Prior knowledge:
- The structure holds two protein chains of two kinds.
- By secondary structure, chain A is an all-alpha fold.
- In chain A, 62% of the residues lie in helices and 3% in strands.
- Chain A contains five helices and two strands.
- Chain A has a two-stranded antiparallel sheet with strand order 1-2.
- In chain A, a hairpin with a 3-residue loop joins strand 1 (140-142) and strand 2.
- In chain A, helix 3 packs across helix 4 (105-136) and helix 4 packs antiparallel against helix 5 (156-191).
- In chain B, 9% of the residues lie in helices and 47% in strands.
- Chain B is globular and about 50 Å long.
- At the A-B interface, helix 3 of A face strand 2 and helix 2 of B.
Amino acid sequence: xxxxxxxxxxxxxxxxxxxxxxxxxxxxxxxxxxxxxxxxxxxxxxxxxxxxxxxxxxxxxxxxxxxxxxxxxxxxxxxxxxxxxxxxxxxxxxxxxxxxxxxxxxxxxxxxxxxxxxxxxxxxxxxxxxxxxxxxxxxxxxxxxxxxxxxxxxxxxxxxxxxxxxxxxxxxxxxxxxxxxxxxxxxxxxxxxxxxxxxxxx
Amino acid sequence: xxxxxxxxxxxxxxxxxxxxxxxxxxxxxxxxxxxxxxxxxxxxxxxxxxxxxxxxxxxxxxxxxxxxxxxxxxxxxxxxxxxxxxxxxxxxxxxxxxxxxxxxxxxxxxxxxxxxxxxxxxxxxxxxxxxxxxxxxxxxxxxxxxxxxxxxxxxxxxxxxxxxxxxxxxxxxxxxxxxx
Lengths: 202, 180
């Protein structure tokens, strides 16, 4: 099945391939490259960690743990933003493998739309959190090293509105991730078309 | 409780020759560091008795009584926490007090006020640098900024004593406007 769209390629023109091992750094046809995979799975782990902290920290009584979790949540969120920005830059340098010709047009469009929205949310959600934090009067300092400016002045009404925005965007992200992971499961175990192995290291 | 405290604050004997403090133009703020981020706060209610005279430094004095329960922080949750036993324990120690012991000149319009700062049953000597200036309406403005270590006062005790979460150093910034 897979051979239908996995184009064979000679990697000898790619100088790094010998050093980096099997997966070349640039996206080879039909598979994501090492860098794209690394960034994808970093984003997945970071989003899971940020979500786990968010669900834990908000219900905690005020305590040192709560302050730590909020700081970590913010640092992870900023990292998600940076990883998404690097991924977008990397995509333009090393475009992702094209979708297989056999894939229905509607599915290709749906996949593209979900990916675009996921990128958008990975950029917008951390920003919404940063503005929200500013509105509550708590500045953000990335990893305690890089102080970020406050985007808005302390404002309780604005803060509560921004919290709703931050939560709504995250609900959207969660919904899209269900679609994203659901599609991966379908490709892997229903269609068995090798789509998911494009993002898995060999 | 609040009324009793207000009465106690009002009961500070006014010193002979004390200068009138313009409270709505004055403030006592502080900056603490939480997880590396500066968090500002202030005290809504306090009372000062100031007699600062360049011509008579030996007789000059500055006394403060700060109602710790009047703390203003980013959220009501943090304000409630700040009043609890681990922090200021305002039920047992409602006020922070400063009583000057000496005032000395430290340059043009600059003074060094030495005195005892008492909070939560602990008294320590502090030296506060004060800069004086006049505002547009001719009032005297005294500005002071000095660090206070919270841990010797057991402010932020127990689980809160980890300075990597809330730093030991707290910067106190006071601006006291003295009417003509």
